[in-house]
Amino acid sequence: MAEPLLEVSGLVVRLGRGRERRSILHGVDLTVGAGESVGLIGETGSGKTTLARTVVGLHRAERGTLRVAGTDVTALRGARLRAFRRSGVVQYVFQDPLRSLDPDLTLGDSVGFGITDPGDRVADALLAVGLDPALAARRPGEVSGGQRQRAAIARAMIARPRLLICDEPVSALDAATRVQVLDLLSGLCAEHGIGLLYISHDLGSVAGITDRLVVLHHGDVVETGTTEQVVTAPCHPYTRLLIGSAPTVDGGGMGRAERAELRAQLAHAPNGKVLT
Of 3, 188, 100, 264, whose CA–CA distance to 256 is shortest? Predict the structure, then answer.
């Protein structure tokens, strides 16, 4: 595997207060190498976004270790944690760019926000994601959804990150734009040697741009392996259910009876890891 960039081991995260506090992640293990793309897949509520927010220091880990480029994020507090967030080593691309971009700022101001003397860097960042630098003068509401998401990616890339986390980055886009943005992400990460953690419930989108897949179910990693291995020979009932529900992966989808049978198996399946 490529040089370890993100190393997650035995990660336990609990959220909430008092009696409402509950365990979200139960001893998760995950790695992403430099220049490697890893897909984290699972249904809504499986813990995918909680894991991503913990990586960038927005949630505290109760147990386990989490290292980014050699830095133990779980050990950071106060000024050191704020410095880590500002360093740009990890950047986050959100699902909805209309909400993640400030509607009152131009695209150029959003892309260059926090960058000392951005100068030509904003124009270069826009060009790198296939946008005309003239769009820097427009606000998010004045461009298309695909252009907004490209601008959000430019904002992440201008910080020169080592790890890029994309949380459902194409779910709000039409099919044609979705393919363009996926190709863009794959190309940028390969060109710059950036580790990519791609989070989605849509196995069809993830399979096309990832080297490995990690399947998360109710806070547990239930299967992990190369993308080809997991897609062509899934071992866990939950993985088989995800693949069977994604016609873009298997070409035909799965019938209602087959899905019901897998859900019945899943109800009695242990949540331990399955290494393929």
Answer: 264
CATH assignment of the domain containing 258: 3.40.50.300
Sheet holding 90-93, edge to edge: 90-93, 163-167, 195-200, 37-41, 212-217, 220-226
Instruction: Give tens-digit pLDDT for 175-216.
Output: 888 888 888 898 888 889 999 999 998 887 888 889 999 999
Ranges under pLDDT 70 in the chain: 1-3, 246-276
Q: Is residue 145 a part of any domain in this protein?
A: no
| C-alpha span between 242 and 231 (Å, rounded) | 10
Q: How many CB atoms lie within 10 A of CB 263?
A: 12
User: Around Cβ 260, how many Cβ atoms within 10 Å?
Assistant: 10
Domain tally, the chain: 1
